[in-house]
Amino acid sequence: MRVCIVHGSPRKGNTYRATLVFQEQLRQYGAVDFAEFHLPKDMPHFCLGCHGCFEKGEKHCPHAPNVQPIVKAMLDADGIILTSPVYVLAESGCMKAFLDHLGYMYIAHRPMEEMFSKVAMVISTAAGTGTRHSMGAMARSLNHWGVKRIYRYGLNVFAPSWDDMKPAKQRRIRRTLDSKAKRFYHAMAQRAELRPRVFTRAMFTMMRKMMFQYPDGHIDKEYWRQKGWLTGSRRAV
Ligand SMILES: Cc1cc2nc3c(=O)[nH]c(=O)nc-3n(C[C@H](O)[C@H](O)[C@H](O)COP(=O)(O)O)c2cc1C
After folding, report:
1. Distance from the CA of 207 to the center of ligand 1, in angstroms?
2. Which domain holds residue 8?
3. Are 2 and 33 in contact, with CB atoms under 8 Å apart?
4. Distance 85 CA to ligand 1 centre (A)
5. What's the 15 CA to ligand 1 centre distance in angstroms?
6. Same domain as 184, residue 212
7. Ligand 1: which residue has its CA nearest to atom 7?
8. CATH no. for residue 104?
9. What is the pLDDT of residues 65-117, one digit of tens each?
10. Are 123 and 220 contained in the same domain?
């Protein structure tokens, strides 16, 4: 299996440790190759709001040399893992900046059909509260990219660092991450057969109708047409 990880923090702290445990647990179920990207090192830019990706194509993004290798690794993978610590009840700024660069591949614009069979996991840690928000933000993008299954793991550390957590809590974390790893691995192995999600199908159907209203030549409409999604009954999901 191939898994692409986008780490939403440069720190080798709690989130990284939880992700390492998850990686270890995944390897129990079979061989896994990881392609790892570290934010902000591998994509150090804020979206400039130039609309280049939306209006001219993603290659026109001034940050495409950073963004596109990560997109390619995600498309080549069976599974995607996005991680982030909680910062002020939200995802990290570098994760937000990364996700901002990928709005063009929302189902509402130019969805990548490869995403319709991907499995994803979001991992987030907090001192005490907020993982619901940070995981929600990462899951929202995965959802709008059309990802087939999205799993979540949020941890409130309630300690200065990972090693300060009681051994019993660390064992509980391992057990939980193990059961999530098992589900994630098996979902990756069966990803072609898994049923598409209602959200993806509904969004796709709605956007397909919208595309007919767009003028010919509109970049999104031409993309959908080239994919064959506007003719006959050809459906991507
Ligand atoms: C700028 C900043 C904001 C934070 N905001 C919150 C917060 O809103 N809620 C919370 O429980 N912890 C918050 N924390 C603590 C971290 O989320 C927590 O320590 C997390 O496990 C750090 O992950 P890391 O070790 O991977 O960096 C914040 C930390 C920083 C640096």
Report:
1. 37
2. 2-194
3. yes
4. 6
5. 10
6. no
7. 88
8. 3.40.50.360
9. 999 999 999 999 999 999 999 999 999 999 999 999 999 999 999 999 999 99
10. no
